[in-house]
Structures are given as C-alpha cells and as structure tokens.
Amino acid sequence: MLAHRLARQLAHPSGLPGRLLGNAMDVVNRKPTRLAVDLLAPGEGEAVLDAGCGTGAAMAELLARTDCLVTGADASATMLEAARQRFGARASYIEAKLEDLALPDATFDAVLALNVLYFEDSNHPMLHRMHRLLKTGGRIVAYVTDRQSMENWSFTREGFHRLFDRDALCAAFADAGFAQERIEVHEVAITRSVTGLLARAWRS
After folding, report:
1. pLDDT tens digits, residue range 39-54?
2. Bridge partners for 141 per DSSP
3. Is the four-CA dihedral 190, 184, 40, 97 of positive or negative sign?
4. Rounded to an integer, what distance in angstroms lies between the CA atom of residue 27 and that of residue 23?
5. How many CA atoms lie within 13 A of 131 on its CB side?
6. Which fold, 2-202?
C-alpha cells in the first residue's frame, strides 16, 4: 500500500504530501540535475523548457549558469506553485501535461526533461511534443534511472512507471523523430548501487 501511494504521488504530486515528496526528490536528484544541466550547456539568451519542472530545482541550476529564458512546465499545480514561489518573474510557468503543451512549434532552443519519461506512454507523446517544440538544431537532455537500478525499488512495480535501459531510451527518442545519429546516451554513476542514463539529442 505504501509503495502504491508513493508511486502515485511521484506520477501526480498533489497537496502537502506531494510538496514534501518534491522537496525530498530535489535532494535525491541533486547529482543527476547538475550533470544534466552540464550536458545541456544553456547559452545566454536561449529559450529553455524545463519539462516536468517540479519544485524548480533544475530551473535554479539553469538560472545560476547563465542569463537564459526559462519556462517551467508541469501537470502538477502543487509543483508549479512551489517553483513560482521560488522564482517569481524570473521565469515563465505552464500548468499542463507535457504532451499537451499549447505552444507554437520551434519555441525552444533547449529542453530539459528530468525523471519524466517514466510516465510516458508507449507511443511517446511527450517526446514527440518536445521534439516539435525544439527549434531546428535545438537539443534535449533527459535523465532516467537505469532499469536495473529501478527494478530494485518496490514502488516501480505499481504500474505507474515505465522503465528504460540504454537501448529502450535510444529507441524512444528515435520513435519521437530524433535522427538516430543525433542521439547519444551516457551511463552515469549516481551512487554505488544506482546507475543513471543521460540522453542528449538534437532536432535536425
């Protein structure tokens, strides 16, 4: 029962439990967030989407690196309000499912998607939408914890999470329209027992 409740809150954070979980995830994901922003390498003046921004931990990292134009998007009103309280007018905010973002195509120079692809359908509507939102030559960086690491956690067996290994992550990006030769996946050691996958791809 506890595993089910945890999995449900991770997928759809809400209320005080969601806020507290979001804060805990910021701590747990500090290293993946830093590595992902390093790989994204945001440039001055670039329009950057933080897809599934949560409480805004990655937004903080982006804004600390350079003077970029950050938009945080999240389906959770609880998470988005937390981000808005942190940054106010320094960023823009959209409450919507990632696959339903009502923005013009080719809006962003870069997209960051940390720990959101677990909740992607098998036909990858989130990645399809993010592909279209990128300008030609724009890039996306996504992070997921590797399947072998996540299979050890009981909450991932509650039907809310889709798990990835390196090949499955590459295939998801290719299915969403990214050219195979423009997709790279890096294995990263998060702890001694946890391996993460960082994917970077460009829109041709």
Report:
1. 999 999 999 999 999 9
2. 112, 200
3. negative
4. 7
5. 18
6. Rossmann fold (3.40.50)
